[in-house]
Amino acid sequence: VHVAVLGGGQLGRMLALAGIPMGIGFSFLDPAPDACAAACGRLVVGALDDPVALEAATEHAETVTYEWEGVPADAVRRLAAAGRTVRPGATSLEVAQDRLAEKTAFTRLGIPTPAFRAVDGRADLEAAAAELGLPLVVKTRRGGYDGKGQAVVQQADRLASAWERLGPSGPLIAEAFVPFDRELSVLAVRDRHGEVRCWPIPENHHAEGILRRSVAPAPGLSPAVAAAAEAAVTRLAAELDHVGVLCLELFQVGESILANELAPRVHNSGHWTIEGAVTSQFANHLRAVCGWPLGEVAARGHSAMLNCIGALPEPAAVLAVPGAALHRYGKALRPGRKVGHVTVVADDADTLTARVEALRPHVG
Ligand code: AMP
Fold first, then answer.
1. Phi, psi of 313 (to 5 degrees)
2. What is the number of the ligand 1 atom nearest to the C-alpha of 179?
3. pLDDT tens for residues 65-112?
4. How many helices and strands (H and E) does the chain possess?
5. In 10 A of CB 267, how many CB atoms?
6. Could you tell which of 119, 260, 267 is best to mutate to test the pocket of ligand 1, judged by most ligand atoms within 8 Å of the CB?
């Protein structure tokens, strides 16, 4: 079996690390000649909308999938029209690539989301501030990730500078600021027959818009909140006819949830599943896109995932902590770049906390 992956970053690399034991071979398409998935398969270097490069990367594959949500939806449509099996499909990409389409879909499906307004001009921004109040979160509709392309406007006299900074990058969206208690994400896998399984829900901590730490299962999560999150991601997956893993990022406020963002792919907040769940997000994504039965998603105890941003820890220091596993992505170190992660697993929450404390001087 051969799977072609559009994108060749760490997510592609971890897909291959999960798929190679099942006998899957991999090709990757990535514009970067040093794309880190190349360690685990054949790398085709080229733009993701280049028909020649797309053909070269996918010609021997039974199934095509993607690990980057910036893949042009048209490229996926053309591959599908040419007879390739592409899972997930173009619709999942289109909805996830435009924050307005995303939030409109949430609303249509009855999934609560922060109040929002489309902002196509300066006047729309003033109107959004008047209707939604301050603080106001202003984001580019397309292309933003890891907190890039957004501003939190605290005072009305700052609307102009937010417009000057973000307006030139294209249409915007304004959202009510949510004073959330914490951030959660729900990861689900859906197979081609429509069966959906949801992993235990992690609690996520961000700094400067970048995920730093996930703890799974989220401490103290009520069954009602978990059920609401699972219902939301299940509805969304069915609406998109999504096959594979998807992730819905959420704000928890009291006993309610608000959907922030959809990722139509394996996700950083699911990395803990490699050691911390019976079947990882990567293995289950491959099972789904290859048309195989889904694996169990139960947690094996309590897990924490700590991201390595811009720097890597000393391996010996990490590996001295019981239950810890080190992942280095083989990427060049640059400030703000995700270059690795550490997952630590324990049988109980107190032991997990002690192990995270032992890791903290070395990671994050
Ligand atoms: P995003 O790029 O939409 O995932 O936003 C990055 C981070 O900014 C989120 O993880 C939140 O911590 C914060 N954020 C985004 N939208 C809002 C909002 N409407 N209210 C409060 N915080 C937000």
1. -80, 165
2. 21
3. 999 999 999 999 999 999 999 999 999 999 999 999 999 999 999 999
4. 12, 17
5. 23
6. 260
8-state DSSP, 199: P
Which SS3 state, helix, strand or coil, does residue 4 take? strand
Q: Phi/psi of residue 254, each to 5°?
A: 60, -130
Query: Is 64:2 a contact under the CB 8 Å cutoff?
Result: no
* pLDDT, tens digit, 9 for 90 and up, residues 287-321: 999 999 999 999 999 999 999 999 999 999 999 99
Ligand 1 atom nearest residue 180's Cα: 21
Interval between CA 260 and ligand 1 midpoint (Å): 7
DSSP string, 35-46: -GGGGGSEEEES
β-strand 244-253 against 150-153: which pairing, if any?
Answer: unpaired
E strand or H helix that includes residue 271: none
For 185-220, the pLDDT digits (tens) are 999 999 999 999 999 999 999 998 899 999 999 999
Contact between 202 and 215 (Cβ < 8 Å): yes
2, containing H or E segment = strand 2-6
What are the residues facing 136 on neighbouring strands? 153, 176
Burial of residue 13 (CB within 10 Å: 0-12, 13-18, 19+) is buried
- Residue ranges of alpha helices (H) inside the chain are 10-19, 51-58, 73-81, 90-97, 99-108, 122-132, 159-166, 223-240, 273-276, 281-289, 315-319, 349-359
